[in-house]
Specification:
By secondary structure, the protein is mainly α. It has a domain of 231 residues. Helix content is 70%, strand content 0%. It has 23 helices and no strands. The chain starts with 11 loop residues before the first helix and ends in an 11-residue tail after the last helix.
Length: 506
C-alpha cells in the first residue's frame, strides 16, 4: 500500500498553529515545574498566537473572534508581557502571593483555550444546521416590503432619540464645569425627567434595528457618524471606553457588510486609508489623553514608549485578577448573590418591576455604600471591599468576566462560559441576515462585548431583559406594520424619499 504523509494534509498556517499550541503546553509544564513566571507568560503568548493564526485561516468568519483576542491581550496579557520584555519582576507588582499570580495565568490560559474550542464547535454547529436548511428559499415580497418600512421607522426613531441622548450627555458636560472625572463618578445625579433617559436609551436600540435591515452604505453613513460623535461628550468628561467601543462597532459593521454584501463594496480605498491612519493615531491619542487626564507630563516620552505605556496601563486587569482571587472569600455573602448575571438580576429585582412586586428600593447611581454592599455588581462589591475610601471618592478596580464566572461557578463555570462565548462569536456572524430581530440583538451585543475582559460577564446582553429594549422593538415593528397597512403613510414616505431605492441583499 502507498503511504501518505499526514503532514501534507495540513496547511502551513495549521502546522504553525499546532506548533504554537505545543509550545504553549510545554511552557506550562516547564513553568510550573521550575516555578518561573516568565515561562508561564510565554505560554500565554503562544496560546494567543495560536488563536490568532486560527483567525487568519478564515478571517471573514472569525473577525469578531480576533477583536476579542485583541482586547484579551490589551487588558489581561499586555502588562506581564511588557514587564517580561523590560526584564522586570512583574509578578511582584500587585503585592500578591504566588498562588494568586498562578490563578491569573491559569484562568487566562483556560479562557483562551476554551474560547477557541467553542469557536470550532460553533462552526460545526453552523455547518450541520445549514445542511438541514433549504438555502434556496427566496424572500417574498411582503418580507421585503416590511423590512423597508422597518428601516424607515427605525431610522426616524434613531434621529429623534439621538436628540434626547445628546441632551442627556449635555447635562453631564454642564455638570463637569470645574470638576474632575473622579468627581463626576462620585457626585453626578441627573436632574432631567426620567422620560428623557428612557427615550435616550432607545437611541442605540433603534440604530441596531436600522442596521439589521441592511441599509445601503450611503444611507447608513450618517447614523453611524452621529453614533460616533455621540461618544465625544463622555470623552470630554474623561471616559474613553464609549468612543473606543463605538469605533470598533462601526469598523466591524463595515467589515461584516463588506464580507457578505453582494452588490456593494463597503471597505474601499478611502476606508482602508482611514483605518491605517486612525488605528495608531487612536492608540497614541488615548495614551496621551490618559496622561493629560491624570496631570502627568509627557514631554520626554517618544512614540514607542507611548505605545508601550498604553498597553501597560490598560493591562492592570491582570493584577485585578490576582488581587480579587486573594479577596474572593471576603466578598459580601447574600442569598442568591450572582455576579455573572448581576446586571440582569439587579434590573429585575431593583427595577420598577421589582419595586412593584417585591417592594425593593432602586439602586442609586455611582459609587456608594448601597452598590458596594447590596448590588450584584462585582466591580462595586470588590472595589468597596478593597479600596473603600478610594471607591467612595469615585475610583475602583473594575471587573472581568473571568472573575465573575469563577467566583459564581468555579472552573467549570469559567470553562462553560468560554465555550458558549466561542460558539456565539462564530455562529452568530455566520448566520447574519437570517432574522432581523436576532441580528438586532447580535449587533447590540457587539457594541459592548469586547470590553468583557475588564467588565461584566453578561453586561453586553443585559439589555435583553430591559423594558426599554422591548418597548423600542415593539414601537419600531408596530410602526413598520402600520406603514404596511396604510397607503397614505406609504405615499408620504415616498414623497419624502425615505424608502430605500433598491433592496440590498446579503
Amino acid at each position: 500500500m502507498k503511504k501518505t504523509n499526514i503532514v501534507f494534509k495540513f496547511s502551513k498556517k495549521e502546522i504553525t498553529r499546532l506548533l504554537c499550541l505545543i509550545i504553549s503546553g510545554v511552557s506550562v509544564i516547564i513553568g510550573y515545574s521550575i516555578k518561573n513566571f516568565n515561562v508561564l507568560c510565554t505560554s500565554m503568548i503562544f496560546l494567543l498566537i495560536h488563536n490568532i493564526i486560527y483567525v487568519f485561516e478564515n478571517t471573514k468568519d472569525r473577525v469578531i473572534f480576533l477583536i476579542l483576542h485583541i482586547t484579551i491581550f490589551t487588558f489581561l496579557i499586555s502588562r506581564p508581557f511588557i514587564g517580561m520584555l523590560r526584564g522586570e519582576k512583574w509578578w511582584l507588582e500587585s503585592g500578591q502571593a504566588p498562588e494568586n499570580i498562578y490563578f491569573s495565568i491559569n484562568v487566562i490560559l483556560l479562557s483562551m483555550l476554551f474560547i477557541y474550542i467553542g469557536a470550532v464547535i460553533g462552526e460545526h454547529i453552523y455547518q450541520k444546521v445549514e445542511r438541514n436548511n433549504d438555502n434556496n428559499q427566496e424572500k417574498n415580497q411582503k418580507k421585503i416590503q416590511f423590512r423597508n418600512n422597518l428601516q424607515v421607522v427605525s431610522m426616524l426613531a434613531f434621529y429623534i432619540t439621538m436628540c434626547f441622548f445628546l441632551v442627556q450627555e449635555g447635562e453631564k458636560l454642564l455638570y463637569m464645569q470645574g470638576r474632575s472625572y473622579v468627581e463626576y463618578y462620585a457626585g453626578f445625579h441627573s436632574q432631567l425627567p426620567g422620560i428623557f433617559y428612557t427615550i435616550a436609551s432607545f437611541m442605540k436600540y433603534s440604530l441596531c434595528v436600522f442596521l439589521a435591515t441592511f441599509p445601503s452604505k450611503k444611507r447608513a453613513f450618517t447614523p453611524l457618524f452621529l453614533f460616533e460623535l455621540s461618544a465625544i461628550p463622555e470623552l470630554l468628561i474623561g471616559v474613553r471606553n464609549p468612543i473606543m467601543l463605538n469605533s470598533i462597532f462601526i469598523f466591524l459593521y463595515y467589515i461584516m457588510r463588506d464580507i457578505y454584501e453582494k452588490r456593494q463594496k463597503w471597505i474601499g480605498k478611502i476606508e482602508k486609508v482611514i483605518l491605517v491612519i486612525s488605528i495608531p493615531t487612536s492608540l497614541i491619542f488615548m495614551t496621551v489623553y490618559a496622561y493629560v487626564r491624570s496631570g502627568v507630563a509627557i514631554a520626554q516620552k517618544n512614540i514607542f514608549k507611548l505605545f508601550f505605556d498604553f498597553f501597560y496601563g490598560q493591562g492592570v486587569t491582570f493584577n485585578v485578577l490576582s488581587i480579587a482571587y486573594g479577596y474572593r472569600n471576603n466578598l459580601p455573602e447574600r442569598p442568591w448573590r450572582n455576579y455573572t448575571f448581576g446586571g440582569m438580576i439587579d434590573y429585575i429585582v431593583h427595577g420598577r418591576i421589582g419595586q412593584m412586586l417585591f417592594g425593593t428600593d432602586p439602586l442609586p447611581e455611582g459609587n456608594n455604600w448601597t452598590n458596594g454592599t447590596l448590588s450584584n455588581n462585582f466591580s462595586h462589591n470588590f472595589s468597596y471591599l478593597v479600596r473603600k475610601d478610594d471607591y467612595l471618592n469615585g475610583q475602583g478596580w473594575g471587573s472581568s468576566y473571568i472573575l465573575e464566572t469563577y467566583v459564581d461557578f468555579g472552573y467549570i463555570g469559567l470553562i462553560l462560559f468560554n465555550l458558549i462565548l466561542g460558539i456565539l462569536l462564530v455562529y452568530m456572524l455566520k448566520r447574519l441576515g437570517r432574522n432581523t430581530l436576532l441580528d438586532t440583538i447580535f449587533l447590540l451585543s457587539l457594541t459592548t462585548i469586547f470590553l468583557i475582559p475588564r467588565a461584566e460577564a453578561t453586561g453586553w446582553l443585559s439589555f435583553i431583559v430591559t423594558a426599554q429594549f422591548w418597548a423600542c422593538i415593539l414601537a419600531c415593528y408596530l410602526g413598520a406594520y402600520i406603514c404596511m397597512k396604510c397607503k397614505w403613510i406609504q405615499n408620504i414616505l415616498k414623497i419624502l424619499h425615505l424608502y430605500p431605492k433598491t433592496d440590498v441583499e446579503l
